[in-house]
Each structure stands twice: as C-alpha cells, then as structure tokens.
Amino acid sequence: MTKPRGRDWIVVALVGLGALAVLAPFYLVVVNSFKSPTDYATSGALALPQALDFTGLGRFWERVNFPEKVWNSIFISGVVAVLAVLISMLNAFAIGIGRVKYRTSIVLLFLLANLLPQEALLYPLYYMFKEVGLYDNVWSVIIIFVVVQAAFGTYLLSAVYGTFPKEVLEAASLDGASRWQILWRVVFPISRPTLSVLLIFFFIWTWNEFLIPLTFLASNANQTVPVAISVLQGDRLMDVTTTSASALLGIIPTLIFFLVFQRTLTRGITAGAVK
C-alpha cells in the first residue's frame, strides 16, 4: 500500500473545504429553524439554539398550508417523472433501435430543445394555455415539464439504445416477438437501471423548478413548495427563524426521497458503468 503523497493531501483538503462550503448553509438553516426570534437576536446566526423552539416551523406550516403544497409538488413531480421516462423510452426505442430515417437530425432537435432558456418559452406557453383554459392548472405545468424532461431523456436514451446488442434483438425476432414485445420483454428489463436513474432525476429536477410554476400557478391552492417558500419569504412579516423553517421544510421531502431511492440510484449508475 503506497503512502499518500503531498498532492493527495491537497486533494483531500480541497474536497473537505468543498464539503464545508456545501454543508454550511444547511447548518445555518437547521440551527436557526429551532430558534425563537429573541434567541436569534441575542446569540446570532451561528450559535446553537439555547432551547428548541418550534414556533417558526408551526407558523410556516399554518400560513402556507404546507401539506397542500407538498401534495401539489409530489403530484406534479411524480406524474412528470413517470410520463417523461415512458415517452423518452418510446422515442429512444424508435430512434435508437427502430432506426427511423434522419435519426441524427431528430436527436439533434431534442438536444436543441434542452438548450432553450425557460424565459423564452414563457410568453408563448402562457398565451397557449390561456387560450385552451389550462392557465392556473397543475396540468399546464405537468405538460411543459413532461416535454422538457422527455427531450433530455430521449437524447440520453437514444445514445444508450443505439449501442444495444443486435444479437439479442435478432434472437427475440427469430422467436416470433413483435416490436412491442421486444420493447417490454427485452429492452425494458435490461435498461431498467438507467430508467430508474432518469426517474429519480426527473422527480428532483421538477420538484426544484421555480419559474414556470410561479408563472402558471397563480392561485395559492395550486402552488408548489418552492413557490410557496419564495412568496412567503417576500412577506415583510417574516422573521429569520420562520424563513429558515420554511427552507428546512422545503428540503426535507426531497432529502427523504433521495434517501429512500439512494440504493436504486447507486445500482443504476453502477450498472450503466459496468455495461
């Protein structure tokens, strides 16, 4: 076993500093969430709370109806993740395995769709959903994010399916399997780890989205967690402890989701690396 060299210690030190930079804001949020306004004023932001105070958490919970906002975010993110993965798989199967004409140009179009800034899409989408009566409806946000996420998923999966072993597909065809059966009985089981990774990322990305939900979900009952936090943090009646509590409650659902599906994410990335 070789001894660590000076360069290795420098890398470790840089990684440690990076970890501290990431954990410092989280520490401030957690510590100040359990302080009273008086405790915060006397001890400052960095000190531990003298006594646990749940006033800020309770105040934020009641003022924004937090369970309602969590359900909105879970519903939108879950539906988007499932539909985007399904559409991505179907598109990629047609492009990568079905070998449709001009597949390179089609994949390029999907890539360009991901490069468009959200700000450029707001006005045409706003006008369109106003005309069809879907403005201030969660399905407007779901449709937008399904298209956006599926464009990325199609681009990624097309490259994966393009390298799919032809021998496996030919063997399934010789056994009499239709294209639909090849997709669900051959391609889907083998690519399940990659699809699981996409599902997790799509859910988290959609959960953290802010601009489009803020624009298209005007009523309080349809707001998602990030929008509710930002709107309430702009209230002059908010104190630092309640603001920290809102940030903590906004982090907890995604943290739980990540911890629950951590092994699925790890297995998916590892399987992709091995293949």
UniProtKB/TrEMBL annotation:
Cited Pfam families: BPD_transp_1 (PF00528)
PROSITE patterns noted in UniProt: ABC_TM1 (PS50928)
Membrane-spanning residues: 9-30, 70-94, 106-126, 138-161, 182-207, 240-261
Topology term for the membrane: Multi-pass membrane protein
Gene3D superfamilies: MetI-like
Organism: Microbacterium thalli
All residue ranges annotated as the ABC transmembrane type-1 domain in the record: 70-261
PANTHER family noted in UniProt: ABC TRANSPORTER PERMEASE PROTEIN MG189-RELATED (PTHR43744:SF12), ABC TRANSPORTER PERMEASE PROTEIN MG189-RELATED-RELATED (PTHR43744)
Protein origin, superkingdom: Bacteria
Matching InterPro entries: MetI-like, MetI-like_sf
Chief location bin: membrane
UniProt keyword list: Cell membrane, Membrane, Transmembrane, Transmembrane helix, Transport
Subcellular location per the Swiss-Prot or TrEMBL entry: Cell membrane
Protein name as annotated: Carbohydrate ABC transporter permease
Family: Belongs to the binding-protein-dependent transport system permease family.
